[in-house]
Every structure is written in structure tokens, then in C-alpha cells.
Amino acid sequence: MTVREGAVATGPTRATGFRAAFGRLDLPLVVASGCIVVILLAGSLYNSSFLSPRYLIQQFQVASFLGIVATGAMLVILLGHIDLSVPWTLAAGAMLGTGLAGTELGGVASIPIAIAVGALVGLVNGLGVAFLRIPSMIFTLGVNAVLQGLMVLYTGGSAPSSSAAPIVIWLSGGHLIPGIPNAILVWAAVGASATILLRATPFGRCVYAIGNRERAAYLSGMPVKRVVCLCFVLAGAASTLSGVLLTGYAGKAFQGMGDAYLLPAIAAVVLGGTSIVGGRGRYSGTIVGTLLIVLLQSMLAVMQMPDAGRQIIYGVVIFSMLLLYGRTRTGQT
Q1: Considering the domain boundaries, does residue 204 fall inside one?
Q2: N-to-C CA span, the chain
Q3: Strand, coil or helix: what is 177?
Q4: Taking the model in full, what pTM does it have?
Q5: Which end of the chain has fewer surrounding CB within 10 Å, N or C?
Q6: Which residues contact 87 (CB under 8 A, 6 or more apart)?
């Protein structure tokens, strides 16, 4: 009788333990990681080189450009806002970088100048959202249109005649560590900085608090407006940094080169588990989400699927994953 009672008593304990262990799992991270494995296996069926180290490193290099943009997008989304000025902020950084490379300033000076311009664009976004109280979706979309006009005036409606500076080409495709493109190292440095900023500083706690409830954060004495401005500044700088690296990868800048990075960057952040309404998210999820987006695009290209079919599958996968865990709560970074 005693043994029977003991057996009955351990049942709920084990069940509770299983539920507790399952509850600690980061569902978005698990689902996205599982999708990456499926994509890698499916891609290898069409092309055996899909799993080769050289091909995977190349995909990591391509992912680094999107990952840097997604880092800035995550900071803004954690606040409960969104930045739609990414396309022409990125293009502005790329065009200024290549344009200044052909002047007396040279390629070395073009990098910080381009990043500073992105930070200035972010500051304008932050001032409009934080102080003028204009919805971020509307204000950043307007800034994007203004940037487009300014870049058309700057370039005369065509791509800059100058090519990427040698230092930019090295920063994007060179190898400080043998076998690993420098762009991956830049993404790693940006990601590590963002993780530390969000996890180990008062600024990070303010970001999550504002995303959860901005009014409560304001009443508790947090510098809400300054934090919002700084997040947009960092997002703008991240976009132009990615633009500069892209010119090193492609060799030059061109009109509309940032158009392909707006929705994928947002998708990478959200698929990684960051709440689109702010307040919750892990940077590790953004990394996995970025890799998922890039590998999915690569697999569809390997399968030689028409562009219309790629867009349909791309949208269905994102929509399906959001349905799986779109309403779950995730922890902080």
C-alpha cells in the first residue's frame, strides 16, 4: 500500500517536471532551428554542395548583411515601434560610401561618414516619434521617401560612378581569420554589442520596460524619449553599416539596393520570437531568424523555382510559423 501511494505521488511530480521543462523551452527558437535543419536537408537533396562548409560560410556571409540590419530593427521593435526607412537609409550609406571613396577623403573616411549619416537619419526618426509623437510607421515611411529624393539628387538618378574602396572590399570579403569572411566578424561584433547593451545595462532594461508599457516606464522616471531616440539612432547606423558592407560585397552601389532588406529584416526579428508589439525578445532568436530567412531564399534559388513561386512559399512559411507561436510569451535577450 505504501509503495502504491508512493507511485501515485511521484506521477504528478514527474508530469509537473515535464511541463516545467517544456515551459522553459524557447518555442520560437526551437521551431526556427528545426526549420533550418529541414531546409538544409531538403536543399542537400537538390544539390550535394548545399551542406559543404564553403557554401555554408558563404550563406553566413550573406546573412551578415541582413543580420546587421535586423539588429537595428530589433531594437526599434522591442520598443513597440517599427522603422520603415531601412531601404533608403541602407542605400544612402552605400552610395555615400562609394561616392566619397573617389574623393580626397578616401575609403577609410567614407565608412564613419556613412555610418554617421545613418545615425543622423535615425536621430530624425527618433525625434519625430519620441517628441512629435507621430506614429513610427508613418514618420519613418516619410523619411524613407525624403531620403530617396535626396539620393536621386545626389547621384543624378544613377548609381555613383565610383566603386567600393579597397578597405570596404576587405571589410566585407577579406579574411582576418582564415576561411571566415570579415563581414561575419563584423556581424558577430554588432550582435555581441547589442546583447551586452540589452542584457547588462540600464538602457536595455529601459528598452524592455518601454516596450511593455511606455506610460508606466515614463511614470517610473525612465528617460523614455532619450531611449527611443537612441534606439532609432542605432538602427539607422546599423542600416548604413550594412549598406557599406554590401558595396564591398557587390563592388558598387546601385539604386534600390536596400529594398530587399526591409521585410526580411522585420521577418527575421519576429520569426526569432521578438514580439511585434514590443517588450519581449532574445537576440539569439534574431540570429536564428536571420539564418532561416537566408537559407530559405537560398534553397528556393537552388531549386530554380520561379520568382512568383518563391514569394508564395516565402510568405506561407513566415505566416505558418507566426501562427505556431505568434501569441506565445518569450523571455528577454
Answers
A1: yes
A2: 49
A3: strand
A4: 0.89
A5: N
A6: 144, 256, 258, 259, 261, 262
